[in-house]
């Protein structure tokens, strides 16, 4: 009988964990992220395949997606703030998955009847299908942005309550899920398309999103019912008090925190739903513009403005495992097998960064963790700078950046040979294009490319720790009624810097200029961490350099000395 007690307690603890709101959020996020990663990987491959192995449609899709989030990020966040949490989660979830399903079905029809569509109306029907696919996929991405804001930036904070350690653990677990799905999901759908067909791949993704939508909503509904705090929003409570109490009483009882962040609250309270002006189209358009402006103004006036900007500056870089870096690696003699191993090492490094974040935060505090992570990332990136001047580097500024473009335009080619090979690699060998006739010459030394990827992989530890630090700073220091709009503007800033880095590559696309892009990227990362240092020093002063115990540290974020924008 004495041994029965501990066993029962252990079983109850396990059952309590698997039925807790925290675990249910993990499950829902894993399913959602898995579907997103499969779709994001597959849609780029589908667009390349549909347009004759050209990157034109993929580039247009990327530009539309980035531009949409850049322009509409604040409006999406404001919509998240103004509506009940369950309504926001349900609406964004249904729109996102329905758009992906519709896109999948449309792509299946295009793959099945492509030859017939080319002949109809001189190919205009097929062009219309391309436009519909890009438009619907963009709507799905906007809905995914709303889902990410409401779940990862709001629900997680409410479920964690006032426990900062629990919030840090939840953020780290969510990021580990992101890392794992980012590697495993594309591998799965890639194998399906390689051993099956693009038609089967579209059907699998559509079926996954149909099942996932129902299960995700069931999990979120259970989380919502088990966490009563999710049913009440600060903005809604303030609006009810504003209507029930005289204005003077509200002004007298207003807390300093509410008084210091009045922009979006006033916009949500002052607006009168019964006003006849709101029925006009012109008023609705100007209201959206006012919301957009108010969102950016509120973001600028936040006490964590410098921290958010520092995170955005990290997106202005070519030092990541995207198509640009992998394309450069191919020109340096690395094949698809080596690149896949490097991506796996990058994922492991990112997971180590999330684990390091939770440990360092407990020892040194949240703000110091960001400072330490930024220093570590910048130190590792010095290897990338060294790779520019190491043996085997093609760095040569005497070569015109537009030489390759000119040659391909004159020669009538639509893609460099390397892009053909990359298309074949990313589609699992299922591309219809023949292999390139010319092979790249072997390098004399792999020292440069080795230093480059050593720096990129090692820097992931600091990068993900820094990302988690800034994310939690935003979660803890932005008032509840503004979480949506502030995170929406943050997403817009991230996409803006990401767009700039693609423009930078367009201006210098040849491998000889990649070293210059590396130096510019490291410079932007350094500027971002300088901004974070200003934020951290303003918040902690000389205590920033004192590694104190958790019981001794008291971190308060002071508002930076910025002029208020009205």
TrEMBL record:
It is found in: Basolateral cell membrane; Membrane. GO terms for molecular function: iron ion transmembrane transporter activity; metal ion binding; peptide hormone binding. It comes from Monopterus albus (Swamp eel). This is Solute carrier family 40 member. Gene3D superfamilies: MFS general substrate transporter like domains. It holds the Pfam family FPN1. Keywords: Cell membrane, Ion transport, Iron, Membrane, Metal-binding, Transmembrane, Transmembrane helix, Transport. CDD domains: MFS_SLC40A1_like. The chain crosses the membrane at residues 55-80, 92-111, 123-143, 304-330, 336-359, 371-390, 446-466, 514-535. GO terms for cellular component: basolateral plasma membrane. May be involved in iron transport and iron homeostasis. It is a multi-pass membrane protein. Belongs to the ferroportin (FP) (TC 2.A.100) family. SLC40A subfamily.
């Amino acid at each position: 009988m004495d041994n029965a007690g501990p066993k029962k307690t252990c079983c109850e603890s396990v059952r309590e964990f698997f039925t807790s709101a925290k675990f249910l959020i993990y499950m829902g996020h894993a399913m959602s992220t898995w579907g997103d990663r499969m779709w994001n990987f597959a849609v780029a491959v589908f667009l390349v395949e549909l347009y004759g192995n050209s990157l034109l449609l993929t580039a247009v899709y990327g530009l539309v997606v980035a531009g949409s989030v850049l322009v509409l990020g604040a409006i999406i966040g404001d919509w998240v703030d103004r509506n009940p949490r369950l309504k926001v989660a349900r609406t964004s979830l249904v729109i996102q998955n329905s758009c992906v399903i519709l896109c999948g079905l449309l792509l299946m029809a295009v793959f099945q009847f492509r030859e017939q569509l080319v002949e109809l109306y001189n190919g205009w029907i097929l062009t219309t299908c391309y436009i519909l696919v890009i438009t619907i996929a963009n709507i799905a991405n906007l809905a995914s942005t709303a889902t990410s804001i409401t779940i990862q930036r709001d629900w997680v904070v409410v479920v964690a309550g006032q426990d900062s350690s629990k919030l840090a653990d939840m953020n780290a677990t969510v990021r580990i899920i992101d890392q794992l799905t980012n590697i495993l999901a594309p591998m799965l759908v890639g194998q399906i398309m390689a051993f099956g067909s693009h038609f089967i791949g579209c059907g699998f993704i559509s079926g996954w999103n149909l099942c996932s939508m129902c299960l995700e909503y069931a999990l979120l509904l259970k989380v919502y019912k088990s966490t009563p705090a999710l049913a009440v929003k600060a903005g809604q409570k303030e609006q009810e008090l504003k209507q029930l109490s005289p204005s003077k009483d509200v002004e007298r009882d207003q807390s300093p925190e509410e008084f210091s962040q009045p922009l979006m609250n006033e916009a949500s309270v002052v607006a009168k739903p019964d006003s006849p002006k709101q029925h006009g189209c012109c008023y609705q358009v100007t209201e959206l513009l006012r919301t957009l402006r108010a969102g950016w103004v509120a973001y600028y006036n936040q006490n964590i403005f410098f921290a958010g900007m520092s995170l955005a500056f990290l997106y202005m870089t070519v030092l990541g495992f995207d198509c640009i870096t992998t394309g450069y690696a191919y020109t340096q003699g690395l094949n698809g097998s080596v690149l896949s191993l490097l991506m796996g090492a990058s994922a492991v490094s990112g997971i180590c960064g999330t684990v390091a974040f939770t440990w360092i935060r407990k020892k040194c505090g949240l703000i110091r963790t960001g400072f330490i992570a930024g220093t570590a990332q910048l130190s590792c990136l010095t290897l990338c700078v060294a790779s520019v001047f190491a043996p085997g580097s093609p760095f040569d500024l005497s070569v015109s950046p537009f030489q390759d473009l000119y040659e391909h335009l004159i020669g009538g080619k639509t893609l460099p040979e390397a892009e053909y090979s990359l298309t074949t690699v990313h589609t699992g060998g299922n591309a219809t294009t023949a292999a390139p006739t010319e092979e790249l010459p072997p390098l004399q030394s792999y020292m440069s490319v080795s230093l480059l990827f050593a720096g990129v992989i090692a820097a992931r530890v600091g990068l993900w720790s820094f990302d988690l630090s800034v994310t939690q700073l935003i979660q803890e220091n932005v008032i509840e009624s503004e979480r949506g709009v502030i995170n929406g503007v943050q997403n817009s800033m991230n996409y803006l810097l990401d767009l700039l880095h693609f423009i930078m590559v367009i201006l210098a696309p040849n491998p000889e200029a990649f070293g210059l892009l590396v130096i510019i990227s490291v410079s932007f990362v350094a500027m971002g961490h300088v901004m974070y240092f200003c934020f951290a020093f303003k918040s902690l002063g000389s205590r920033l350099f004192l590694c104190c115990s958790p019981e001794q540290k008291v971190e308060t974020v002071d508002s930076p000395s910025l002029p208020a924008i009205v």
